[in-house]
């Protein structure tokens, strides 16, 4: 039999209330495979606030604390302080929030936790909109995307602003470790999570999380879409450790159109608009490679 490349142990139970093909389910599953059972998670308002199940059901095997939408950074700071007061050093504190609760509503408390260097891991599962409340655009929604608050009509009124660069924002806080991860590359994902666990201070993990209903995509293509995001350089896999950038997977450099065409949220784009996205992706990829300190 082939050798297992990821831990066999499961720290989630079957039966979450997530949608079929939900990328966020896999983000949580791989995260806990990398961290183990000595973990406590704080979750704000988001899809994962309801996905564990209705009381008394629960699909997580680790303790869970719910916080207000804007308060994940404060919550994990409080949890870490309480554990330290009790002398509990072997429990990893995790903030687990969507993009709306991270790049928008929760940014102020995340910034505070990062400035204080709270010894915790903050994970943003990025489905690129406020999916739990009806697919409204967030600061993480990419340019050109349809959402219910950027409807596509006669005026071609799709999302007109660029996606926030949360990795750059966190690096500006001088946290010791940040990384991007993908559910299509679990080995890379779990390796980075394990590394983050071993580092003292605030760590940030940015996980792309395809959302079939919000992205107007077939649930069977969740992993393919996540893989194409990496292979088209739309979502590069890299880490920043103590200021040094390391690209962990360079992808295949496929056309961005391969990624876009599997998602109905981009179906309205003209060839010229797709070409504009391609140019932006290539420019961002070139900038990342210039920063790459891995020597590969």
Essential attributes:
about 300 residues; Rossmann fold; 8-stranded mixed sheet
Strand order of the largest sheet: 2-1-3-4-6-5-7-8
Number of domains: 1
Mean pLDDT: 95
Order of helices and strands: HEEHEHHEHEHEHHEEHH
The structural class is alpha/beta
Which regions are unreliable across 5 or more consecutive residues at pLDDT < 50? none
- Give the C-level CATH assignment: Alpha Beta
Provide the β-strand percentage band: 15-25%
Give the CA-based shape: globular
CATH topology: Rossmann fold
Give the proportion of residues in helices: 25-40%
Based on CA atoms alone, the radius of gyration comes out at 18 Å
CATH superfamily: Thiamin diphosphate (ThDP)-binding fold, Pyr/PP domains
Q: Would you identify the CATH architecture? A: 3-Layer(aba) Sandwich
Could you give a short account of the major beta sheet? 8 strands, mixed
What's the end-to-end separation, in Å? 32 Å
Total helix count? Answer: 10
């Amino acid at each position: 039999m082939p050798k297992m490349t990821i831990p066999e142990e499961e720290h989630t139970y079957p039966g979450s209330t997530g949608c079929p093909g939900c990328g966020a389910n896999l983000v949580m599953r791989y995260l806990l495979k990398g961290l183990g059972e000595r973990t406590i998670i704080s979750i704000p308002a988001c899809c994962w606030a309801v996905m564990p199940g209705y009381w008394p059901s629960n699909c997580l095997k680790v303790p869970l604390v719910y916080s207000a939408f804007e308060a994940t950074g404060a919550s994990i700071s409080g949890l870490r302080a309480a554990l330290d007061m009790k002398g509990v050093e072997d429990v990893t504190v995790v903030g687990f929030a969507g993009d709306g609760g991270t790049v928008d509503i929760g940014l102020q408390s995340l910034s505070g936790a990062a400035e204080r260097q709270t010894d915790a891991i903050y994970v943003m599962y990025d489905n690129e909109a406020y999916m739990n409340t009806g697919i409204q655009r967030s600061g993480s929604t990419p340019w050109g995307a349809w959402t219910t608050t950027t409807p596509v009509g006669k005026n071609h009124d799709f999302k007109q602003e660029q996606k926030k660069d949360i990795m750059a924002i966190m690096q500006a806080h001088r946290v010791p470790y940040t990384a991007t991860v993908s559910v299509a590359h679990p080995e890379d994902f779990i390796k980075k999570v394990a590394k983050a666990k071993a580092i003292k201070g605030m760590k940030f993990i940015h996980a792309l999380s395809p959302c079939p209903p919000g992205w107007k995509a077939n649930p069977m293509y969740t992993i393919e879409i996540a893989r194409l995001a990496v292979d088209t350089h739309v979502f590069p896999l890299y880490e920043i450790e103590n200021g040094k950038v390391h690209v962990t997977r360079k992808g295949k450099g496929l056309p961005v159109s391969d990624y876009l065409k599997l998602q109905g949220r981009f179906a309205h784009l003209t060839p010229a608009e797709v070409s504009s996205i391609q140019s932006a992706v290539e420019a961002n990829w070139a900038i990342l490679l210039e920063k790459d300190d891995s020597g590969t």
